[in-house]
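Predict fold of Na(+)/H(+) antiporter subunit F; 93 aa.
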Amino acid sequence: MSAMILGWSITAAQVLLAFAMAFAALRFIRGPRAQDRIIGLDTFYVNAMLMLLTLGIRSGTTLYFEAALIIGLLGFVGTVALAKFLMRGEVIE
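Predicted 3D structure, encoded as tokens:
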């Protein structure tokens, strides 16, 4: 019974994450300002990381968890670099 509930909840989470990724991609593409596009990209990579985590839970392999960790690290660095570029106009001082 609990395995069935876990399977349904993971499926529901993946469907909702797919919707969230679609809306984040829409914000990234149609954002009126650069700040909106960065927020959309930030939301997209967080949702992609969570999607990989749910795939890892479903399959039971650690490869998805490692890929999610790398996406999280690179996404954070990319968001900080883009925010610094928008604030100052340059990334490296």
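The helical segments are 2-30, 34-59, 63-88.
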